Predict the 3D structure of the following.
Amino acid sequence: MSQATHIGIVFNPSKGARDELEAAVVAASDATVTWHETEVDDPGVSAAREAIAAGADLVLAAGGDGTVRAVAEHLGESGADVELGIVPLGTGNLLARNLDVPLGDLAAAVERALDGEARDIDLGWADVAGEDGQRRWAFAVMAGFGIDAHMITETDDDLKDKAGWMAYVESLGRAVSASEIIRVTLTFDDGETQDDDAHTLIVGNCGTLQAGFTLLPDADPSDGELDLFVLDAEGAEGWGDVVKNVVWDNGIARAFGGGRAKSSDSVTHRRIASLEIDLAEPRVFEVDGDEIGQITRASISVQPAAIRVR
């Protein structure tokens, strides 16, 4: 690890805490510091570009999952020789959780970002076709459609401001009701094609959600692969199978027995390098907790060792 000489802070002003953040950075480093605010319609790509153009060799993404994702997207796409530090100021803070960045302690997160060892992590890319035409999105944690995407659209923003990530739990029932099973065609990197019924499909680079809940037990953000989770549960029997699979087979039993994630009648786990997804009907799609509209097709790929994160 080298000491940063120029820290570019990509900051989401809607999250507040600028004075506290500035004090923490000044206390921990005598490097040059420049500030680059995000905008509502540009959560961090342009700000990251400005930070690098200003000479930053360390970019701090200070905000929520959207800010972190946008900064990571630019770093991965540009190939800039710049390291990323995360100061989690959002609700989910999913990448921070998966990389053990301190949560709820801004000064500790800044210290980790300035003094922590950097590691290479992968990025996932989703080239999607939908109501807004063709668009390419990076994701550092997860992307997909179904319950997770509907939890985002069904969550009350005022409640999220008050209760944090617990607001997503309140929306779970509505999300399940909104997630109807549809036909999907999946084409894997080895050329295999299969038709599936699914109401939830998630591709993940990391596996842990809020409250330490692990959805993708094999996911490793530095292994050059992505992990696929497909859910097609219906009725009490199907959801009972899901609970057994997630809580017992891939939770308690796996903790003692090890091995790869296990599939079941209602849950499919698989490791992939790329995936083509064709949906019979449009569905809301999300990347790292941001809803990006309805899509009918997605091409998923992985960029190994795309960025260096402290």
Summary: The chain has two domains: 6-117, 123-309. Residues 123-309 form a domain with the Tumour Suppressor Smad4 fold (CATH 2.60.200.40). The chain has ten helices and 14 strands.
